[in-house]
Amino acid sequence: MSWGTPWAQHQGPPRIDLLPRQITQQRTVRRQRTGIGACFVLLLALLGLWYVVESQQLTEAQRQVDEERAVTAGLRQHRAELQPLADLEAEIAAAEQLRSQVYARELRFSSVMRDISAIVPDDVWLTTMNAAFKDAAAGGAPAPAGGTAPASGSTGTAGTGDALTAGAPGAGAPVATITFGGSGLGHVDVGGFLRALARGPQKDGQPVYLNPYFTTSQKGDDDQSQETVTFTATVDLSTAAFSGRYQPQPAGTVTP
Asked: What pLDDT was estimated at residue 142?
């Protein structure tokens, strides 16, 4: 027969703690303080590591800022060095714009004389040739000047431009008028000269010469060996007669 209970057999002999309760509490407090201290030291280590990493990042960011500032200072210095060139380019652009405005209504009579010399037939010769310019109306549209009166047979008044009968002097808002004086072998020859003017050169699809019109055509004296006629005629110049020099051109075009 065995003594004791099953619990006593499994648990072993009872343990008796002879230490005072105060010492046990002190040990517990020391263990807690040690754990808290270790956690605090670990936290300080983590904070130190975080500070080192952030310090490195701050140093790298400061280095990049210094580099950017150095680049900016260099660009500003380079811009200051190039500013005279920019000012010069602005002056050139302003001069080109002014030149374009000055030459916007340029008529090169060397070209006109070349055309006339090619148009005049062999049996007609010119003795006088005068040119009268038209004033630019408001908005830049050309209008006839008051000094050039329409020839007989035309309708409207000078200055009405397109209101005149088509083909009459001053119709089509010309920019200038040329008055011819000359002689020919006959009235038919004078008419051929005016028809040649009407078929004259074109520029950009627009005729250069408008409204050829003769005002007088008279036979000479009967005592001359060869009968001739003297005539006066006019022809208008369209905007196609402008030289176009120093004007803005579309890309791919060449100014003659």
From this structure: 40
